[in-house]
Amino acid sequence: MEMSNPYSAVAEARFQRLSSLPLQPIGGSTTFGVAALGRSIRDIFSHRETLDLLIKRDIKARYKDSALGFLWALIRPLIQLAIYFVVLGQFLGAARGIPDFAIFVFTGLTAMGLFQEIATGGTGSILANGGVVKKVYMPREIFPLASTGSAIFNFGIQMIVLIVATILVGKPPLHFGLVYAVPAVLLILVYGLAFALFFSAVNVYLRDVQYLVEVVTMLLIWLSPVLYSWQMARDIIGNPVLIDVYTNNPLTLAILGFQRAFWVAGDSLAAPDHLALRMLAAFGVGLVLLFLSHRVFVRLQGNFAQEL
User: Among residues 238, 252, 269, which one has the least CA distance to residue 187?
Assistant: First the structure.
């Protein structure tokens, strides 16, 4: 006589119970709407502690076993400043047309450096965390956001140096133009994060994208008034339509706003009309671009684990 196995009966009952349950989707919704975006934001917020840990890990890993530690966040931009100041400012004579040229250059490098770190770090963030992506579920957006958080940390250190430098030259940013710093930083964050979300997802499928992003961000330094003034670009371009196209570049607007805030010596120079209004319009466009980039990211994230 065959005896029944109680364990197989329990297992069969469990399988039947599980098969009757509806499947629950994991991760961001692939639907294209504000409600789906809201669910993604709530999902990210519920993993905020994980995001905090990833930001701290990125910061510590960057300077791990380094004798100088966080000072490296200052050394690179200071070396860039020295090179550009000597080569462009002194040898090529750019400093003769720009007052307080060192402050001018460092202001632009600080703003552009924030965008570059968000864009390049965010683009490689999914690949860099491939082991976690394949093993543990969490909102994939957390990885570009963690890169953004570590970039903001480095930006804060450079901001301290910039403010100290303005004090040392006797022109601290104690003027109304300081209010332009807020929309300038917001522009960089919105466009940088949109850039990071879109290209981090594409980079999983096309690994050359991260190198392309590095080249593009390098070129953007020369397409914005970081190493030369907006007044120089206006005089060289000449055509009013082309000048507007150049000026309305969101990074150009962000850098101009940053210069208006911290480069006090530039208050007496000509500036584009309606700068605040231009920045507001660019910010609105940036929010739309961020929304679209996030939707592309959500659509592509389903096969991240397989591709990695």
Answer: 252
- Does some domain include residue 11? no
* Cα(191)–Cα(13) distance, integer angstroms: 53
In a domain, 6, yes or no: no
pLDDT, tens digit (0-9, with 9 covering 90-100), for 30-43 = 555 666 677 878 88
Residues 96, 138: Cα–Cα separation, whole Å: 53
> What pLDDT score was predicted for residue 8?
65
Residue 8, classed as helix, strand or coil, is: helix
3-state secondary structure 67-89: CCHHHHHHHHHHHHHHHHHHHHH
Q: In the block, which residue shows the tokens 């364990």?
A: 7
The answer to whether residue 239 sits within a structural domain is yes
Any idea how long the chain is?
A: 308
61-68 LR contacts (CB < 8 Å, sep 24+): 62/150
69 — pLDDT class (breaks 50, 70, 90)? low
Domain limits for position 251? 31-307
pLDDT in tens, 168-224: 888 899 888 899 999 999 999 999 999 999 999 999 898 888 899 999 998 988 889
Q: How many independent structural domains does the chain possess?
A: 1
C-alpha span between 265 and 182 (Å, rounded): 20
Residue 17 belongs to a domain:
no
